[in-house]
């Protein structure tokens, strides 16, 4: 058995299958390499109103969710939370345009999706977003693992 | 297969916490704290579990434009050799805590408004 096999075997001993699914989701998803092939959707966020960005409706799978800005925007402040009542414990994130415009530098390497804009959800968990400054349109890509 | 030298359950749990925990920001146990006194050290979180590793998120959401210099430490009071960071509003700093570890923070300058922190923690 090689080192990765050993590591996965140890993980199976310590955790239930859901954690292992979350592990694979995060490893595969951390470079943003699945954003183009995941299920895309548009989320319209009114100013300062919590809006559902993603929901894990599976019974036992992990849901990977990427949140990016529409290409015409460069930066926005969004509070991410697990419920529509983020209160003072929501996670404020300054999110940036994830990919450079196509005509900006054709030779540029696609940047990875920042971890602050990528989330892995357990079954029945929801991801809410609240725009801190004005209405926003976000692209949300999701994939089950 | 034999354990590599020095690696045990604690390190395996830390590994999974580091990989999976990175993408769990809004979830887990939540708390928030306000600070405003420079030079004072505050304990943010402690890992009181017997054998679990704690994935910890510290984010700042007071909305003030000032980027603050802060020092994070595994000791109750930060020293000059501890981890100093520029902490902008809406930014996140992540930590992995072993059982028995604590995490404290020291403000190195006066905030223009009281500092508001959000702390998320999830065991692995």
Keywords:
heterodimer, A: 145 residues, alpha+beta, Jelly Rolls, globular, B: 124 residues, mainly beta, four-stranded antiparallel β-sheet, 1 helix
Can you walk through the features of this model?
The complex is a heterodimer of chains A (145) and B (124). Chain A has a 4-stranded antiparallel beta sheet. Chain A has helices at residues 3-14, 17-29; strands at 39-45, 51-55, 63-69, 75-81, 91-96, 118-121, 126-131, 136-144. Chain A contains 2 helices and 8 strands, in the order H-H-E-E-E-E-E-E-E-E. By secondary structure, chain A is an alpha+beta fold. Chain B has one helix at 9-21, and strands spanning 29-35, 41-46, 54-60, 68-73, 83-87, 92-97, 102-107, 115-123. Chain B has a single domain (9-123), classed as Jelly Rolls (Sandwich). The mean pLDDT of chain B is 90. The relative contact order of chain B is 0.33. Chain B starts with 8 loop residues before the first helix and ends with a strand. Chain B is mainly β. Chain A binds chain B through residues 1, 3, 5-7, 9-11, 14-15, 19, 22-23, 25-27, 29-30, 64, 77, 79-82, 88-94, 115-116, 118-122, 125, 127-128, 132, and chain B through 1, 4, 9, 12-13, 15-16, 19-20, 22-27, 30-32, 57, 59-61, 63, 88-92, 116, 118, 120, 124.
Quick recap of the structure?
By secondary structure, chain A is of the alpha+beta class. Chain A is built from 2 helices and 8 strands, in the order ααββββββββ.
Strand content of chain B: 35-45%
The helix-and-strand class of chain A reads: alpha+beta
Largest sheet of chain B, if any?
A: 4 strands, antiparallel
Look up the CATH topology of chain B. Answer: Jelly Rolls
- Give the % helix of chain B: 10-25%
Question: Low-confidence runs of chain B (pLDDT<50, min 5 residues)?
Answer: none
Quote the CATH topology of chain A: Jelly Rolls
CATH architecture of chain B: Sandwich
How many discrete structural domains of chain A? 1
Let me know the average pLDDT of chain A: 86
Structural class of chain B: mainly beta
What's the count of strands of chain B? 8
What can be said about the biggest beta sheet of chain A? 4 strands, antiparallel
Oligomer: heterodimer
Strand arrangement in the largest pleated sheet of chain B: 1-8-3-6
Quote the beta fraction of chain A: 35-45%
Which chain pair has the greatest contact?
A: A-B, 42 and 32 residues
